[in-house]
Amino acid sequence: GVSLKEAKERGQLVFLEGLGSCLNVVFGEEEPEEEQEAKQPHPLQFLRTSFSSSGTVSDLRALFDFVRTALAPAAGDAWQGRVLLVDELGVLLSLGAAPVAVLDFVHYCRVAVCSRLQGNIVVLVHSDEDSEDKENELVVTSMCHHSDLILWAEGLATGFCKDVHGQLKIIRRTSLQPGGQHDTLQLYQYKIQERNVTFFARGMSAAVL
């Protein structure tokens, strides 16, 4: 129900289209060195950086600078509660960024957005218990460890069902808060419709009842 086009026109949304940007960085025409120095580095500039002897590319400083500049309050800006949406974090690993560089990027974003601007960060990451991608699982584990709220969507353990498409775990990390005791867990099942998603308690689907 949110018009992203209108949000961009009102200055509420700054959007970096990753796929198109990657293609431009990798296959785009090289600019003269003088023009490159005069301009701000491209957010995905690390794709052009030579691989180091360890086999990993440089840090994601240019991407962080883009985020910090995009979310910086402007004069007369009335919008409060800035939110950084990252969809999805694992793509940076696929593009060659090291897990340490990705986690450093998230750390600096948390300081800039959550601490300084009193905003929030929403990050999408994919995980698979049977995955052999150790780097991705390291990032997933770290993100879960540092998150205040985890929404974990997964399929049904019993397999495919046309009326129940999966279940959603909502984990509130109250243990991270001062005086917090134990994390709280809520479990819902859901059905994806054409323009909506219906949530219901486990086993309470109308089709089941």
Provide an overview of this structure.
- This protein has 209 residues and is an alpha+beta fold.
- It folds into two domains: 17-141, no CATH class; 148-208, no CATH class.
- Helices cover 33% and strands 18% of the residues.
- The protein contains seven helices and six strands.
- It has helices spanning 4-9, 18-27, 33-38, 61-71, 90-94, 99-116, 134-146; strands at residues 83-87, 120-124, 149-154, 166-172, 184-192, 197-201.
- The strands form two sheets. Strands 3-4-5-6 form a four-stranded antiparallel β-sheet, with no helix packed on it. Strands 1-2 form a two-stranded parallel sheet.
- A hairpin with a 4-residue loop joins β5 and β6.
- It is globular.
How would you summarize this macromolecular structure in one to three sentences?
With 209 residues, this protein is an alpha+beta fold. Helix content is 33%, strand content 18%.
